[in-house]
Amino acid sequence: xxxxxxxxxxxxxxxxxxxxxxxxxxxxxxxxxxxxxxxxxxxxxxxxxxxxxxxxxxxxxxxxxxxxxxxxxxxxxxxxxxxxxxxxxxxxxxxxxxxxxxxxxxxxxxxxxxxxxxxxxxxxxxxxxxxxxxxxxxxxxxxxxxxxxxxxxxxxxxxxxxxxxxxxxxxxxxxx
Length: 176
Hints:
This protein is α/β, with parallel strands linked by helices and about 180 residues long. The chain is about 25% helix and about 40% strand. It contains three helices and ten strands; from the N terminus they run H-H-H-E-E-E-E-E-E-E-E-E-E. Strands 1-3-5-9-7 form a five-stranded parallel sheet, covered by helices on one side. A five-stranded parallel sheet has the order 2-4-6-10-8, with no helix packed on it.
C-alpha cells in the first residue's frame, strides 16, 4: 500500500494517494514495532467516509461523458469504458490502478494536437484512435509496455496525439 500510495501521489491523485500512503505507513510502523495499535481499526471508518464523499462529488461517471474536449478517467480495481466524440478533442488524463480503461476516440477530432496523460500501475489502458491520427509515444515504462499499433499515413498536417505519463507493471495499447 505504501508504494501504491506514492505512485498515486506522483500521478496527482493526492487524496487517495495520501490515504493509501498513510495506511501503508501505519502498517509498516506496526510491522517494525514502532506502534501497537491495529491499523484496520483506525482507518476503516475514515476510508468509508472518504469513499462516500468521493461518490457524492463524482456524480457523473466518466463512461457516460460524451462530446467533451477532455477525458478524465480513473479506474482503481475496476473497469471503465469511455467514448468521446468531441469535435475539438484536447486530451485528458487516464489513471488505471489494478484496473482497466478503454477509451474510444474514433469519432473525435483533433484540431492540431492533443496530449493524453496516462498513469497505469498493474492495469491496462486501451485507446482507439481514428485512421489518420499520428500518435507519438512519450511515456516511461517500468516492467510494462506501450504498443502503438496505428495505421497512419505520414501527413504533415495530420492531427497528433501525444501520449505521456508512466506505465508501471502495466500495458497500454493504442490502435485504430
